[in-house]
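Researcher: Please translate sequence to structure tokens.
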Amino acid sequence: MVRTIQDIFRVPPCTRFAKSARPMQTIFTTDAKAEVYRAITPKQRLDEMNPSLKALSGRRLWGARQSAAMNFKDADAAPSAVLNRILWWDAKGYDVPFPAR
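Model: Translation complete:
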């Protein structure tokens, strides 16, 4: 990236590493595309809230309670073992067992 920026602004490389780096010129084209941009409308409303705890059960309820109790203000304050389980189930499905060590 640095090499590409230096090439665009015609700045000589500062180090031998920048000089030997490959520029990213192959990903750019000289032809501008004048197509009209079409925004994708999200399927989920942005003001939609997470379900209440009363609407949850099982692992979802456990994960919601654990997440609500975690401290996300400090870096790495959330317990990684618990957070990994919650993220696993959220990505893979709450019926998929968490892998054993």
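Researcher: Any highlights?
Model: The mean pLDDT is 88.
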